Amino acid sequence: MAERPAAGTLEAGQVRAMFDRIAGLYDAMNTLMTAGLHHRWRARAVELSGVRRGGSAIDVATGTGDLAIALARAVGRGGEVVACDFSERMLDRARRKAPALRFEWADALALPYASDRFDAATVGFGARNFADLRLGIEEMARVVAPGGRVVILEITQPTREPLAGFYRRWFDRVVPALGAVAGDSDAYSYLPSSVRRFPGPRELAEVMHSCGLRRIRWVLTAGGIIAIHVGEVT
Predict the structure, then answer these.
(1) Who contacts 169 (Cβ-Cβ below 8 Å, separation ≥6)?
(2) Residue 183 maps to which CATH number?
């Protein structure tokens, strides 16, 4: 049975409208909120994806394309990277950033790609916006060939003090304030609430297992604020 959206989660159309609205702010806010470390986390996600020169990968909910760009560096000129999103304005930013890459409109819950098409599928900071988490992961697994990997890079909630206290102050107070200064307090108030609703590392691994992925593991970094999960398609 498909997983229903959590109470209070934005509908798909609202999420799309929000990302269309903040597309121009997105890269600058990511850099500000993470002190530029988000590029390092994406590089680690690419490493865990296992893609090699000449390989193929899809980046789902690509946003402005930073994870797709990192994947493209890994597969080289002989490889293939397809990146998709359902926000046209985010895709516009991605295309301007990397015009040589393939950025396409697609709904993460109904990917328009053949089964077993790619060596890996990734999503960076987008899985918590899926209207149906299980369906989104199932779609990612479907388009990956047996032996390939699904990688989910997400913000998570640290449990140990003093970092947990700092995290709460940063995400619950500072991030919305920064969003207000940037011109969109609603979007950056949604961010901490969406993280709170998202499954913790062990719970997300269980969802991935229920989607048919195996040999699931995860890496916590940035003191436990970032979780990178990887599961293999059988």
Answers:
(1) none
(2) 3.40.50.150
